[in-house]
Amino acid sequence: MKRKSQDCKSRLPDNSAVKQQQLPAFRLQLSANEILSGFFATGVFCLGMGVILLLSAKSIKEIEINYTEKCASCAKLREDATNFDKECNCSISFYLPQKMEGNVYLYYKLYGFYQNLYRYILSRSNIQLLGTDVKDVRNCAPFKTSDKGLPIAPCGAIANSLFNDTFVLLYNPDSSTQIEVPMMRTATAWWTDKYVKFQNPTYQNLSHAFEGTAKPPNWPKPVYELDEEDPRNNGFINDDFIVWMRTAAFPTFKKLHRRLHRIDNFTEGLPAGSYSFIINYNFPVSRFQGQKALVLSTLTWSGGSSLFLGLAYLVTGAVTLLAFFSMMAVHLKLKERKTFFLQ
Amino acid sequence: MFCSKKKSLEVERIVKANDREYNEKFLYKDNRIHTSKYNILTFLPINLFEQFQRVANAYFLFLLILQLIPEISSLTWFTTIVPLVLVVTMTAVKDATDDYFRHKSDNQVNNRQSEVLIDSKLQNEKWMNVKVGDIIKLENNQFVAADLLLLSSSEPHGLCYIETAELDGETNLKVRHALSVTSELGADISRLAKFDGIVVCEAPNNKLDKFTGVLSWKGSKHSLNNEKIILRGCVLRNTSWCFGMVIFAGPDTKLMQNSGKTKFKRTSIDRLMNTLVLWIFGFLICLGTILAIGNSIWENQVGDQFRTFLFWNEGEKNSVFSGFLTFWSYIIILNTVVPISLYVSVEVIRLGHSYFINWDRKMYYSRKATPAEARTTTLNEELGQIEYVFSDKTGTLTQNIMTFKKCSINGRIYGEVRDDLDQKTDMTKKKETVGFSVSPQADRTFQFFDHHLMESIELGDPKVHEFLRLLALCHTVMSEENSAGQLIYQVQSPDEGALVTAAKNLGFIFKSRTPETITIEELGTLVTYQLLAFLDFSNFRKRMSVIVRNPEGQIKLYSKGADTILFERLHPSNEDLLTLTSDHLSEFAGEGLRTLAIAYRDLDDKYFREWHKMLEDANTATDERDERIAGLYEEIERDLMLLGATAVEDKLQDGVIETVTSLSLANIKIWVLTGDKQETAINIGYACNMLTDDMNDVFIIAGNTAAEVREELRKAKENLFGQNRSFSNGHVVFEKKQSLELDSVVEETVTGDYALIINGHSLAHALESDVKNDLLELACMCKTVVCCRVTPLQKAQVVELVKKYRNAVTLAIGDGANDVSMIKSAHIGVGISGQEGLQAVLASDYSFAQFRYLQRLLLVHGRWSYVRMCKFLCYFFYKNFAFTLVHFWFGFFCGFSAQTVYDQWFITLFNIVYTSLPVLAMGIFDQIALDTSYWTVINHVFIWGSIATYFSILFTMHSNGIFGIFPNQFPFVGNARHSLTQKCIWLVILLTTVASVMPVVAFRFLKVDLFPTLSDQIRQWQKAQKKARPLRSRKPQTRRSSSRRSGYAFAHQEGYGELITSGKNMRVKNPPPVSGLEKTLYNSTSWIENLCKKTTDTVSSFSQDKTVKL
């Protein structure tokens, strides 16, 4: 009998809140006034935010120089891959109507270059780039090995297609003088890329480290000659190379190339006036109807010069306020009727 | 059915007793049953085959194969195989456990012991080893192991009593009797062992009430019918032993043949999900095709010139082929629109809901210590969609306990408690039970609350005494004294049991009987009455009488029966009493009590002798015997003096009325399907307010032939539509009520309805193809449908009918083996647990101890499950579409190259880890009231926890450390750090949130204002009332209707009168005393034939009632 009563007890479900579905429950139930004021506040906030973002984006000075057309002859030359060792320069002048204050950045911009193709993105070897095993070319098809069977370093389609135009920016304060604008070629890549993800193999001499490997077929020179002046910017840890290796998500993209070195005439930034770019034209784009451009730009707290975010905020704010007014109208109109019902 | 098809070869069955070798030739099934689906060897292949029949699983298998093709693979294989293996394993484990329990219960049944006659010895043998042709011995209260031919029994003349509750739900005892030739064998083992009769009979079938066969033994042939067969599932009662020969064993038994096939039940959401998956798959193919075409064009226009950077293989230069490959790649990428984790999540949610059902204390029945149990975990949300409930009666709606509640004696009601203000109140348990000091044999459990009756007895009111004397004399109860000297009544009708027990407790104790005498103890003094004649009960007569001579020599006829019948035969002087009593009867009937009218007649000695002489003549007559006897009965049962009426309560389970009321409020239709008699079923219908006097019409279909049934249905339909037309404004349409007065809404939906009552024989005709639709149309118009005298298979057929032609979700609830087939064929089967038999529970999807828990199961668990599941599915599909369509749009920017925006880890983890728990929490724990979702703590924990998990996994995967170890797998180093420090990222997140939330809020706000739902209105109203006033509880009031209705219902079978007067069922220890009065003693075969004939007649005479309006 005793056991039976214990049995009964054990079969009786526990009286816990979870089991009896009696957990304390929170119900978000807002009154009409709360909802309306919430809408109003959100609308005003979004509008304000939009205005601020738009103003800050407008404050950015930016100039874009498309040199696809202007260097048509060079482009023609590059269409034939056999001309890879022939140099081709081209000069473009432009006028900066307003001075660019503060830090100025030089970007190159590509139109119609699909850095986001599935096969293209896969075609790289992170192990090789980490410097641990230079001959690891596992995922690099179709650029694994050279014709001679040597592993390519850096292997893969991304590395092979490295953007290799070089630029010199000249400032012309008057028609006779030409001052080369000082540019810094480092600190353009992410810190983590430069110091964690990309590493040179540990050898005294960098060229020794890459012994037994071949250069990518499109490259004019091997990887250890990318920047012979600065050993901390050579080989896999070359900033230009790292920037290129971080593939862009869209077929139109710009990548940071140089930073203005703020010395001498340029401590304040880029003064207004006329400038010219001397372009060493190497990268072929006309084959795939792509375009190349150079962008000089300053930055603000909110990022680049895109107006999209500001506009989006502005529209959202406007719609929310519109909704607020119509909801309030409906609510007030129906309130009379409802009170009538409830009596 | 599959098995019947296979067996169709067997036209007749030939069984030889005690000859296993002979019977083996026919390859009859042995007595082993198995309801399980797999064994150890077949489990894996069969289960996997079953699982991959599911559209989703097959789809994912196909995806997996695609992913293994390197040309196509755009995602690594682990994105699919991990969830797939998880799902398949989980389902397999669940199936295995289910089947394990089936094995266990099969084993338990198969290993029951029974005594089998093997090698001339009685040996204990497991049930499963019992073979056709074996002779087995059964003892009292044992379950019958197989379908047996009764050979002999401990009772005289090879009689034995069985209870068939498991088969047809009827609890009154039934008589079976052996052939006289075999009953002589008795318990003589050696003679039984030599028994070598050959039975030639019908092939296995599911007809419970039919059996035809011939026994050939010792050169003579004896015909066999159902009266000689004991079916598996019956229980032997009041018979110390019996011997039987196995005719059908195991799956061939009528019980198993009736149990139907186990079907794989699916919910409508399952089906919806399967269709959705197909649609989404179509959608996927569209997307894939668009992207493939895009890829072909891109390859042609742009990619062709892009080869400087990627040297494609020669074979891929063809842009069309590239498009073809891209198609498959995108199929893989976009497959997350139907993530496999959907199925896991759905299973988990259902499992959670099942546990809530198991854990619910409000569905725990403490008296039997039985919690509710969700035996199938996959059907919960279907509970919220039930439109039709099919309920068994006995044991489900009723407790199968009859109690003597009230009586009306000589125009005065007893049993109604009156308080000081002399207002009628219902009897409450608080009132003190009447002390039955008068009766030493008083039954403790008996509760009767009226002191006035006791006073009247003590005062010696002659009418009251006569009333009680009648109750003690006019019945077919057998008494027995157990070792403790206590009286035990063997009743074949529970109503009579209640009446005789009541008389016993009130001082008129029925002690014993012989064929010629009845001895009762009247307030302490033993009085022996001579039983002169027994005018037996029949369904046609609806009454029974005894003629007795008391010690003073007076001859009296005591009669009890249906009021409608008895009132016609009263002496004219009874008119005043008649009106009074019939008022009382209507009152009793209004309370759902089963009533009998009670009357007596003083007989003149001479008159009786004449009558008795004529009766004897009639009995010996060869032609028109029955008609003549009936005429004589009619003749003597007249000029009766009314004594009063009894009211017996067929006790409903607790809360049945409330449950029925609230289920009908929820627009759930309740059909009662019972094997019981029409009157009893109708009575219960009234008792639980399913039938009311307010109903516009109650149609009774009781035709015997197809034509009659068709005609009755046609008439009923005409009637229904005719009335509807004339009362069209009274007919309630569910119009949107602007008013907030809840009570009025409630009232109107309940009234203005029809009911249909149909009995089993008519149902058999009505289920034929051409009338089927009429029946269904009519039945569905009716608020209440009661089907009585239906076989288990018919129950299932009715359910199937509604399921098939109404496309409605059905639920069947029952407690006995006779409900198994209906439980199996309904969408959801509910078994009442805590009873002796387990078959119903084993076949059910849900089980609990009380009918009233159905309310909570359907209206709380069912509704919550459904709402949660729907919300879950919407949420899930939304999130996955949002997640996946990004890849579609990105395709336009990446040259349709099947590049993903997210990394593979994110894709793998998104559904399994990052987003599964909040959705699950909503699916499991969301609380819903008044259409508002309540967030519980768990929802919060899971949402914030998931966000935390996301960031911790993100930072781990993007950390320097993990990159150092697996540079190829986790090349994300620095990504999180650099992107999350960008201010515009956060600004975009903020803007997205605002833009996603605002439209919903605005929509809801306007909806409440412009198109408020009922719950909105209630909320408003509650708010207006400032404080939440509890909704007034709507107690179903006990109606006291003015219209007169007979509450007659009597579970009694014809033929017992003869049994008693012949003395065949009396033990030998009471030898029939030689009495002065001559009695016609029929020879044993003749009365048994009579009995059989009459019991088979029962149904037919019963169904002659035609369509009667109550």
From TrEMBL, chain A:
Transmembrane parts of this sequence: 35-57, 307-330
> Which Gene Ontology terms describe the biological processes this protein takes part in?
phospholipid translocation
Q: Pfam families attached here?
A: CDC50 (PF03381)
Would the keyword Transmembrane be found if you checked this record's keyword annotation? Answer: yes
InterPro entries tied to this protein: CDC50/LEM3_fam
Family as reported in the entry's similarity comment: Belongs to the CDC50/LEM3 family.
User: Which keywords does UniProt give here?
Assistant: Glycoprotein, Membrane, Transmembrane, Transmembrane helix
What gene does this protein come from?
LOC110152912
Write down the species.
Answer: Odocoileus virginianus (White-tailed deer)
Name used for this protein in its record: Cell cycle control protein
According to its UniProt record, where is this protein located?
Membrane
GO cellular component, alphabetical, reads: endoplasmic reticulum; Golgi apparatus; plasma membrane
Q: Give yes or no: UniProt keyword Cell inner membrane.
A: no
Automatic annotation (TrEMBL), chain B:
Where is it mainly found?
membrane
Q: Where in the cell is it found?
A: Membrane
Q: Which residues cross the membrane?
A: 276-298, 318-344, 872-893, 905-925, 937-965, 985-1006
Q: How does it sit in the membrane?
A: Multi-pass membrane protein
List UniProt keywords, sorted A-Z: ATP-binding, Magnesium, Membrane, Metal-binding, Nucleotide-binding, Translocase, Transmembrane, Transmembrane helix
Cite the P-type ATPase C-terminal domain residue spans from the record.
Answer: 841-927
Catalytic reaction list: ATP + H2O + phospholipidSide 1 = ADP + phosphate + phospholipidSide 2
Region labeled Disordered — which residues?
Answer: 1025-1048
**Ranges of biased composition (kind: Basic residues):** 1025-1043
What's the Enzyme Commission number for this chain? 7.6.2.1
Where is each P-type ATPase N-terminal domain found?
A: 15-81
Cofactor(s) required, per the database record: Mg(2+)
NCBIfam families the UniProt entry points to = ATPase-Plipid (TIGR01652), ATPase_P-type (TIGR01494)
The similarity comment for this entry is: Belongs to the cation transport ATPase (P-type) (TC 3.A.3) family. Type IV subfamily.
Please give the name of this protein.
Answer: Phospholipid-transporting ATPase
* Upper classification of the organism: Eukaryota, Metazoa, Chordata, Craniata, Vertebrata
